[in-house]
Task: inverse folding
């Protein structure tokens, strides 16, 4: 389960991430990221945490299959929340192939999309730098 403060719920937030954010497409999913915002709903002007939302349409499969894909994606994103910039909005949209994909395939596509959007690998190291 994704923590309450990290859930994307409002239609306007989904729209902002999809329309005004950057996107990275993979065979199983598309990730939309908007990291250039400040949330006016957070009191005191503090930076809100990163928030994530999921879109899994009927093209993925029946209700059972869609819920399975959503659970897998929530689990994967929860593990990667620390990589996201504070205040960012992320929308993960599952494509039809996600219904037949396993956990490892979804993780690979999510990591590749986040790497492209964030400009670093999913372990938090900047690309091109050697860790010592």
Result:
């Amino acid at each position: 389960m994704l923590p309450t403060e990290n859930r994307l719920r409002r239609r306007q937030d989904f729209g902002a991430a999809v329309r005004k954010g950057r996107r990275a497409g993979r065979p199983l999913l598309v990730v939309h990221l908007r990291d250039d915002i400040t949330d006016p709903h957070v009191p005191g002007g503090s930076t809100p945490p990163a928030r994530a939302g999921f879109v899994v349409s009927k093209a993925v499969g029946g209700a059972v299959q869609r819920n399975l894909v959503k659970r897998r994606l929530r689990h994967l994103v929860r593990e990667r929340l620390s990589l996201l910039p504070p205040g960012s909005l992320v929308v993960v949209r599952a494509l039809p192939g996600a219904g037949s994909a396993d956990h490892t395939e979804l993780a690979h596509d999510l990591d590749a999309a986040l790497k492209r959007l964030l400009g670093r690998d999913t372990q938090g190291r900047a690309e091109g730098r050697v860790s010592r």
The radius of gyration is 15 Å.
